[in-house]
Amino acid sequence: MARCCACTGSDTDRARTHLAALTGGAPAPARAALIGGEPGFATGPFTVDGVTAVGEVTLHNRAELLALLAAARTPAPDDCPDGELLLRLWRRLGADGVRLADGLFVLVVVDGADLVLIRDHAGARTVFYARADGCWAASTSLRALRHWPALGTGVNLAAVRSFLTFAYLPGEETLLRGVHEALPGRILRLSADGAVHQEQYWEPAELLPAEADTPPPTEYARQLRLLLEQATARRLPAGEAVAVLLSGGVDSSLVTALAARLHDHPVHTYSISFGDELPNELGYSGLVAGHCGTRHRVLTVSGAEVAARLADTVALLDSPVGDPLTVPNLMLAEAVAGDGLTVSLNGEGGDPVFGGPKNLPMLVHEMHRDDPAPEVRAEAYLRSYRKCYEDLPRLLTPAALRALETAPQPRRFVAPYLRPGPMHSLLNQLLHCNLRTKGAHHILTKVERLTASQGVQGRSPLFDRHVIDHAFATPPTLKLNGTVEKWVLKEAVRDLLPATVTDRPKSGMRVPVQQWLRGPLRDLSGELLLGRTARERGLVRPETVRTWMRREGTLLPRQGGKLWLVLTLELWLRAYDL
Known about the structure:
six-stranded antiparallel beta sheet
């Protein structure tokens, strides 16, 4: 298990830096390397028609793609690796071939004097790139780029602000100055002269049929059911048991039910508990496990375990994620691997694709706003995250704020989605924004990196591109039907689950962040956030951190979540020697 890179040039030492590097001159023989010790599923190098690539590629529709190449009179060997198959598709059919691939993939191609980066539709796997000394470098490991001597990078302050606003990085920027993330659904060509050319090969689009031709609601649900079955079946591992991360909500429950119905091997389910004294969904997850006949385990996560393992968990991520479930997610992956399973399904994607409760603040805002300017909507979207956005003037130091005066504002990541374009209805605009920001840069990448660290592939049927296309072709009123969220999704699987699971309102698991910060994480937080290293870095004001640690300073008791963001950021910066 490794992460991928390729390089041009004859310098073997350069190859060992695990970067895909491109000189600015004439192309040289291509070399490739796989990063040892880094979590991922890299394979290669592959060479097709004189073009070499490496990648992290898992394809779910091999038979269909092999048939496609055979029909195009360029057949591929039946046993060729997935990375080679994707390379052949791109070489023969270009963007159209990539669009037809179904799976999790990043491919780094040395094409003459250019580097070409291909990232999957929804963004399950990531690739980063930078330019220095007239060379391009690309890697699925941000840490590898961090240690590229030519780069000489430092902290990207604009990305610090974005992270404190969103709790993740929502676009192409990274916390390393000069290093960028390729966006999902794109083919990026990095030319030897420094030019960057981007081709968008897939983007969901709103498709609302004419009123006279509109199918009945039941037909949308029926079609969705077929797509969900296909998406789940394609992601089941052949000849072995499968894991499902089961929270007890409708999304993970429907994946569990479909896996149990479609798989010919045992289905293992896993849930998290933070203790019986806290609100949880264990009753629902247990009900679903019993209903579906799975082999069920509940993992109890203590605050002491979170404190002991938080730094190492944060270090596994290419970009920080201010989600307190990171350590529990890693422990779930360890449990899955410990049971000998290599594939874990999850229910991620239901909210950003079909309209979960996170859209409610924006819908309420739209009912009451007076200013029609698109910038007002984007500003409201940032505030709806309820992270540190409104606290930035008193959280960041004066020096950091001065340095950010001319930097692009975080709203640039969401504003293009929140105006008429591919989507016309407000709900679809919000869902499109959620898919392309939080889905691609938080949900999918967090699952991928943490599960990959244990040799497990995390797969998300609800992020299947066919399911997404159908969701945006479904009228918004069938996703948010009155006060019923994700109506069409629930109708599509109603016969699979107990009504108490399908029809209950979303409650969610309460993560005891405040308890952790007052207990096992208290000393660690104080040492890290108020210590010498943080003070000398000069990003955040110690007095604001002290106020939050005393649970003072705001009307609503959200200091725990804000402190968690600052603590995660500090741990990530230390892990990357920044």
